[in-house]
Predict the 3D structure of the following.
Amino acid sequence: MRTYYISLQKNFLAYQEYYDGVGFHLEGGDGYYYFSRKENKQITANKLSGLCKWIDRIAFLQAYDPSFAPGFTFRKSDILQSFPTNLQLKEYGNKLYADKMTHEKIVDTLVNELQSMGFVELENETEGRFKVTMAYNYIEILMDRIQPVNGEQNEIPE
């Protein structure tokens, strides 16, 4: 492995050209190398759009209960009962989906999405109680690593 690393250092451009030919882009930094694939702008835009949707969903869940995290349990009815007294929850809920939905439909749709992504699982079918899984932790970590650009807070570039 050390021999390959030294060869990469000496012949970086040749290796980069070779790997470009087989569909990978060789990147190098200060003491490291990695491969990436080039994506067209539309694929990147679609990924960012999907990520923005999850930012909104997490903001909604945090407005419902700031302790919403792996291990947290809830029922859909618990969220619905919070709407009348939680103005922030109501505001986020109305922005989550393009269609104007009832609060019940918003909660059903969101919980179904969370369940299909593996972020929650039905813990007790009789009570309708859901439990947040460890998979939810990954999306939280991703969101924590997103840094606003140029000090802009709460703005997503168009």
Observations:
- Residues 2-36 form one domain.
